Amino acid sequence: MAWNYLIEKGYKLLEKNYSCRLGEIDVVAKKEGRYRFVEIKTRAQKRFGMPEESVHHVKQKRLVRLALWYLKEKKLGEPPVSFDVLSVYYDGEDEPGIRLIENAFSVDNEIG
């Protein structure tokens, strides 16, 4: 469902569940000439907050390291990148709520 949503939003999926010794990236995609590293978070209840709230500073830092590893491994140089979060939550309705947060954080915030 999440992958289809991204495709509908114009993302060209390159990798799903890319993993290396540093961890895993849920989705690597391209959109508007930019590599997009997408973290997908799902919650069945809002009791513990919205799914995107779990992408805290430590998680962001890890995702940046993973993205830099991916770019190096694939010999892509230093293209423009974006870190997006796809939040999926169930609130008792028939269809889950989906919220895409593009540019949720940046490499500069984590490395600088």
What does this protein structure show overall?
By secondary structure, the protein is of the alpha+beta class. 26% of the residues lie in helices and 41% in strands. It has helices spanning 2-8, 57-73, 107-111; strands at residues 12-20, 23-31, 34-43, 81-89, 97-105. A 5-stranded mixed beta sheet has the order 1-2-3-4-5, with helices on both faces. Strand 4 (81-89) and strand 5 form a beta hairpin. The longest helix has 17 residues, at 57-73. The protein starts with a helix and ends with a helix. The mean pLDDT is 83.
Taken as a percent bin, the fraction of beta residues is 35-45%
Count of distinct strands: 5
CATH architecture type: 3-Layer(aba) Sandwich
Count of alpha and pi helical runs = 3
Global structural class: alpha+beta
Largest sheet: 5 strands, mixed
Q: Secondary-structure element order, as H and E?
A: HEEEHEEH
Q: CATH first level: which class?
A: Alpha Beta
End-to-end gap: 35 Å
Uncertain ranges: none
Q: Rg, please?
A: 14 Å
Whole-number mean pLDDT: 83
> Widest sheet: strand order?
1-2-3-4-5
- Basic shape: globular
CATH topology: Trna Endonuclease, Chain: A, domain 1
Count of separate structural domains: 1
Provide keyphrases for this structure.
about 110 residues, alpha+beta, Trna Endonuclease, Chain: A, domain 1, five-stranded mixed sheet, 5 strands, about 40% strand
Give the gist of this structure.
With 112 residues, the protein is an alpha+beta fold. The chain has helices at 2-8, 57-73, 107-111, and strands spanning 12-20, 23-31, 34-43, 81-89, 97-105. It has 3 helices and 5 strands.
